Amino acid sequence: MMLNYFDQFASPIFLGVPLIALALTLPWLLFPTPSTRWLSNRLTSTQGMFISTFTQQLLLPVNKGGHKWALILISLMIFLVSLNMLGLMPYTFTPTTQLSMNLGLATPLWLATVIMGLHNQPTHALSHLLPEGTPTFLIPILIIIETISLIIRPLALGVRLTANLTAGHLLIQLIATAALVLLPLMPTVAFFTMILLFFLTLLEIAVAMIQAYVFVLLLSLYLQENI
Amino acid sequence: MAGHDGGSQHQFTGIAKYFNSYTLTGRRNCVLATYASLVAIALFFKLKPKKKPAVTEK
């Protein structure tokens, strides 16, 4: 069987069992849960501090009515960060490289913000489709453009995450293969390729965290517009 | 960026009172009018009777 560079993105099935379910639930086991004791240990306290600081920062521009979204947004952030970071380890599968999964996360949440906006404050939500001060002759075309940009939001959210992670994983595999192939032929070039691979891995760690943050931040912005 | 425009500094008359790009209701009405126009155009082309070619005696 000929292997190609896209085989790493195939959803793994072992003896008929889809392992993506395991890939999705395993990160949950890695995070410590607070105990019933009055004082938590240092790890749990640190985790709690990061989560509460991040929640405050994320929900700072959102109105009070949107604060009920805190739990879903923060848990989504932790979920995406853990999936992305775990996927950087060798021989692991990254569920967020699957477009179906990212669209499945993005579309319902985006649609929820749109429906909430139209239900709670329809005038406000509809007026967002026409920027203030638009010249009269541009009004119809701008409304059409803004409507298209609204509808394309969940697609952009899903594809952004998928493309960033897929491209990163592909690059790592390509440069690692190049370093391996060049090692017996041109060791000096292979050495520089390995340095490049090291910096690329650092970049991918940053991208893994940033893309998860951007996903959640954009959802909070869409919520801010509609609440 | 400026917040919502309450429309207090703009005094519109006539049709501009309801369709403008400065007040909240004006922008809403422009959006609804654009959507209604698009639906009307789509319905017009959908329901337009198709021209049948003339039947000639053979």
Automatic annotation (TrEMBL), chain A:
Chief location category: mitochondrion
Localization in the cell: Mitochondrion inner membrane
Pfam family, one: ATP-synt_A
Reactions mediated catalytically: H(+)(in) = H(+)(out)
Entry's Gene Ontology molecular function annotations: proton-transporting ATP synthase activity, rotational mechanism
GO CC annotation, single: mitochondrial inner membrane
CDD domains: ATP-synt_Fo_a_6 (cd00310)
Protein name: ATP synthase subunit a
Origin organism lineage: Eukaryota, Metazoa, Chordata, Craniata, Vertebrata
Automatic annotation (TrEMBL), chain B:
Places the protein is found: Mitochondrion membrane
PANTHER family: ATP SYNTHASE MEMBRANE SUBUNIT DAPIT, MITOCHONDRIAL, ATP SYNTHASE MEMBRANE SUBUNIT K, MITOCHONDRIAL
InterPro entries (UniProt xref): ATPMK
Name of the protein in its database record: ATP synthase membrane subunit DAPIT, mitochondrial
Species lineage: Eukaryota, Metazoa, Chordata, Craniata, Vertebrata
Membrane topology: Single-pass membrane protein
Domain of life: Eukaryota
Spans through the membrane: 26-45
Keywords, in A-Z order: Membrane, Mitochondrion, Transmembrane, Transmembrane helix
Cellular-component GO terms for this entry: mitochondrial membrane
Gene: atp5md
UniProt keyword Cell membrane present: no
